[in-house]
Amino acid sequence: MKLIVTGATGFVATELLRLAAKHAAITSVVTVSRSPVTIPEGAPAGKFTSVIVPDYDQYTEEAKRAFAGADACIWTVGVKTPNYAKVGHEEAVRISHTATRIGMQTIAAAGPATPFQFLYMSGATAVRDQSTKLEGPSSRSHLMRGDVENLVLAFAAEHAGFKAGSVKPGLIKKRAELPELLPTAEKNGWPTIALEDCCSAMLDVVINGFEKEPLYNDDLKAVA
C-alpha cells in the first residue's frame, strides 16, 4: 500500500508515521507538510517520500507526481475547536474545508489507485446536520467541522473509485499521559483515546476499509 499522510509534522501524524514505518502492509508513505519531516528511526530505506507544500491548499507538480498511484490518504489537517476562536472563522474554513477539498481534487487528478481510501480525521463534537441549533462559543466550530465531513462524503460519491469516511475521536493523549487526564475527562463526559490506539485504528481502516461510517471514539478503540 502507498499511503499519503497530510499534516505530517503534527502530533497525531507523527505517531502514524512511526507505526507505518514498521507496518508490513504499508510499502510506501508520502508525507505532506509545510516543513521538513523527521523520518522514524529504523524506517526501511526508500519507504518515505517527503513533499513540502506552501500550504495545504497549494500543490506543486512534484506533489502531484508523488500522489500518483497512491492507495489511501489519512488527512489530519484542520483547525481543532480549542484553536477556532484564535484562528477566526474565515481562516478556519480555509484551513479545514477549502484545503481538504483542494487536496482531494489534487489527489484525484494525480491518478490514484482504484479503489482509493480517504480518511478524514474529524472530532467527536463535529455536527454534520447544518440545520442543528447549537449554543455556546464553539457552536460554529462544531458545525464547520461537520460540514467538512459532508464535503468528504459528497466528493467520494461524485468520483468513481473514491471511498471516504471520517473518524471522530475524543481527546487524544499518549497512553502514558492518559491517567492524569481521566478524572477531568470523566467528570466532564469527555471521550478519550490513547494516541497509539487512535493511530493504529486509522491505519487499520485505510488498509481494510470502513466497517461503518463515521467511526466514533469507542469504535476506534474496538478496531485498535
**CATH fourth-tier homologous superfamily:** NAD(P)-binding Rossmann-like Domain
Low-confidence parts: none
Please provide the count of β strands: 9
* CATH C-level class: Alpha Beta
Largest sheet: 7 strands, parallel
CATH architectural arrangement:
3-Layer(aba) Sandwich
The portion of residues assigned to helices is 40-55%
Terminal Cα span: 19 Å
Gyration radius from CA atoms, angstroms: 17 Å
Strand pairing plus helix content: what structural class? alpha/beta
User: What fraction strand?
Assistant: 15-25%
The order of strands across the largest sheet is 3-2-1-4-5-6-9
Count of separate structural domains: 1
Quote the CATH topology: Rossmann fold
Secondary-structure element pattern, one letter each: EHEEHEHHEHEEHEHEH
- Principal-axis shape equals globular
Q: Give the number of helices.
A: 8
Overall average pLDDT: 97
How would you describe this protein?
The protein is an alpha/beta fold and 224 residues long. The protein has one domain: NAD(P)-binding Rossmann-like Domain (Rossmann fold, 3-Layer(aba) Sandwich), CATH 3.40.50.720. Helix content is 44%, strand content 18%. It has eight helices and nine strands. The chain has helices at 11-21, 61-67, 81-87, 89-110, 139-158, 178-188, 195-208, 217-223, and strands at residues 2-6, 28-33, 48-52, 72-75, 116-121, 162-168, 171-173, 192-194, 215-216. The strands form two sheets. The protein has a seven-stranded parallel β-sheet, sandwiched between helices. Strands 7-8 form a two-stranded parallel sheet. Helix 4 (89-110) runs parallel beside helix 5 and helix 7 packs across helix 8. The mean pLDDT is 97.
